[in-house]
Amino acid sequence: MCWWMGGRVRWWNLAGGNRLALAMRIAIFTSGRFHVLDLARELSALGHDVRFYSYVPLQRAEQFGLPRSCHRALLPYVLPLVAAQRRGPKAWAPKVDVLLQLALDQLVALRLEACDVFIGMSGMSVRSARAAREKYGAQVFLERGSRHILSQEAILEAIPGMPRPVVPPFNRRRELWGYDFADVVSLPSHHVEESFLERGFPAGKLFRNPYGVDLTMFPATPKPSGSRPTLVFAGTWSYRKGCDVLAEAIQGQPWRLIHVGAMGDAPLPKLANFESRGFVPQARLAEIYGQADVFVHPSREEGLSLVQAQALACGLPLVCTTRTGGADLAELLDDPGWVTVVPPDDATALRAGIERGLARAGTQSGTRNVMGAARERLAWSAYGRRYEAELKRRLNAGR
Question: Mean pLDDT, the chain, as a whole number?
Fold first, then answer.
């Protein structure tokens, strides 16, 4: 075993092999689970020393495979704020969100253990990111799941009836600060990357890595036996996700649409061919995907929606917009034709895309497997390996 970079990073022999691997001390900071719990689990499985700082309870984190040794609990310190956020009056929400972000950020800055890499959620990680660099000389990776904050703000402001401000000044300031401070901004999709590049952001500071999917939870499903073409949309019924456009697209059509998810700011359509089932636990989503022919995701702005990969894993053709990250998932498939990409805010284009998706669905029989040999490329383990390779490349460049 040898040490370099000031004694912070160590090399070790992999059991059962001769090659050397880079073992890193990695701190990951988030509020909830998001995709970074999956990242923490995968980096730990690859042999790295991972510390996951969040208010996700230990038992909940373990349900998603995070080793107990990785968990660093923040919930006991912020429980009153989390309770106020979830159960307090709606009018409190903006101020509670600010207080919660500041409290979590300060907590991690104070409690942060020695690390070689700090991975934090953008907008949330300010004092914690500074502490990681100043105390330990760590490389700072910030996770940005959506478009550049100024691009996101412009898109949301164009939606009629959106409450103002669509992006609070507090969030905008912290996001922009983080983009400048970070060594790397990690992004999930091409369209998010383009929103940074078109603002002159250095390409060398960007790392694009499409999210994964739990293939054991979302197996390939049999083609449904019903005669009526059925669509499914999973997510909050909201203007940001283009649900008003979807409602217009299905009006007067012979299709049935099933919605699973929370009720947002868009009104539910009063259509005979629409059914909303409300919130459904993730463990039951595969059952509902199995009842549909096509998965539809009409978002106006979303970095890379995880439900799209889930639907593809279950064998459904995907119809999505250019701002969902679905095009990135298509690149990972052996046959990209299972993904139909249309422009946002266009009910006519969405309707035509659904027709193409249903035509592809009509060619399926038996157990639907649209991923084929590409299935493992959409696994969380593949996501973790791509991330590990980028960490090694960046750390090696700094030797």
Answer: 93
